[in-house]
């Protein structure tokens, strides 16, 4: 992305955050900001940019290697961009889903869900470790398929840019046909909620179709308002704690593990997995809630 465009988008996002915060403080729109939380989110974004710049060579090199072994070749035409848009969004869905269902990538992603606020600054709360642990690798098949690294990274940026505006409570519902096809603030509020009904739902980037097709969709309900955060919220605004707390917890669990099976479980199993089956995972929390609701 051209530097002037990148700077322009950055300034635009900061202006949008400031405007939402001001309007929310005056009661004109529904938006709540806690300054410590906002500063933590912006600090996370700064660290994310630094790490991504440092890792650009490895990430681009991996995609380039895949592209050099491509089986097809796509020129940068309108049709090729349209195909890439769909494939990129499909890839994002599965990357995002795995980032919730496997603790190894959840450790890199959990920081984005650690805020108990939900506003535009929450979108800035991005990982410091994702690129390091290979969260870009699911896009390598697109290189093998014949899309250049530049096209892939550009489409990733477009997808992430779209997701910025989803992090708001200002927009309640959009027309039904838009809600059916696209990811919206309502759908993404569900994704950031820790309510049992909403845990690990709505992984979409742009298109909501993947969640509907693969059984991970949940609509927002007015009688079950989203409660933001994670199952066990961290009591810190320190960006280093936010970035690394789950990695530290994972290392502690690995040290305590009594077998290779337990090591693999606490690293690659569902977040909250325990060898005795008593761990608090999203599935177990939802199951307990359903039993209570039916009882």
Helix content: 55-70%
SSE order, one letter for each helix or strand: HHHHHHHHHHHH
Number of strands: 0
What's the quaternary structure here? single chain
Structural class: mainly alpha
Low-confidence stretches: none
Outline: globular
Largest sheet: none
In round numbers, the mean pLDDT is 95
Radius of gyration: 20 Å
Q: Compute the number of helices.
A: 12
Describe the protein's architecture and organization:
There is one protein chain. The chain is mainly α and 295 residues long. It has twelve helices and no strands. It has a domain at 35-214. The protein has helices at 3-25, 35-68, 78-101, 103-113, 140-145, 149-164, 176-181, 185-191, 209-214, 239-256, 260-268, 282-294.
Distinctive features:
single chain; 295 residues; mainly alpha; 59% helix; globular
Topology record:
Elements: H1 3-25, H2 35-68, H3 78-101, H4 103-113, H5 140-145, H6 149-164, H7 176-181, H8 185-191, H9 209-214, H10 239-256, H11 260-268, H12 282-294
Helix pairs in contact: 3-4, 3-6, 4-10, 10-11
Give a short overview.
Helix content is about 60%, strand content about 0%. With about 300 residues, the chain is mostly helical.
